[in-house]
Description:
By secondary structure, the chain is an all-alpha fold. It is built from 13 helices and no strands. It has helices at residues 66-84, 90-105, 115-127, 132-146, 153-163, 165-174, 182-199, 201-208, 215-220, 235-255, 258-261, 265-287, 299-320. The longest helix has 23 residues, at 265-287. The protein starts with 65 loop residues before the first helix and ends with a helix. Residues 6-38 have low confidence and may be disordered.
Amino acid sequence: MNGLYQGLMDLPSPICHAPPEPKPTDGRIRIVRHTHLTSAIETPSGKDQKYENFPVGSWLLPAHFRPHIATFYWFARTIDDIADSDSLTAEEKIERLSLFEATLKGEVSGNPGYERGDAMRSSLLETEISIQHCLDLIIAFKRDATKFRYPDWSSLMDYCRYSAAPVGRYLIDLHGGSKTNYPPSDALCSALQILNHLQDCREDFEKMNRVYLPLDIMQKHKVKVDDLSRDVTSEGLRDVIQEVLNKTETLIDDSKPLVRRLVSLRLAMEAQSIINIAGCLASELTRRDPLAERVRLSKWQYAGSCIVGVLVAIYTQLHAK
């Protein structure tokens, strides 16, 4: 998932642990039995929520939804790790991802190693949420197995449509929102994905030969992909990063109407917090060097972004009604 799926560092979040059994508020949502144990099919990357930038299942969201969000997180984390594995061939990755797809569709079930696929299918059936969000993630991660370059911004946005947008769409659907909220949500999720690409541009290239910076922007500034292996950012690569950041900040701006349009105040607080975190991280990437360090926010920056996010969301929703 490359940074979207996506926890809140050093702030309370239950997503990495089996949550208590909350009492559902209606007859529709029931408890999902899921496991966080690792199977032989999975290829853990070592990433967990503390590695990620953004909250997916934080304390801001309703307690009775958290088991389902945790199931979604671990499903997405599992299939992303398969795509990122350096011990599997492209064919092996696609084969495993295809079996997760078949598990989601109910074509197979109970296969050892695919328990998280079974759990995700159970959750989707209980919450009556479309399977398409999870299938879109699989499309993205199959693409990661074979596609290593993106010629332009448009092709990168198409990748984000499948690798990032499904996360926001899933959360909107889970909270009873409207599909009319997908566009600003897609913009926010795409922005988060691009910021993570910038954070990890050196590691992605050196470990997996992936370059998520648009090649036409790199060519425009006379930058070669090998420049991503330098210890410090060259002047040309700095210009590339800034141009990508400018486009990303436009995406963040496009996402801002989401907060007043959401029917769930708790999800609105989460969304505004993420918007704040994204803006803060974009500012840090403007002044710091992602080749020399992994640019990340301090716990105080996270906390401040979330506190302000809660207050702004409450104010925005009150005045939107």
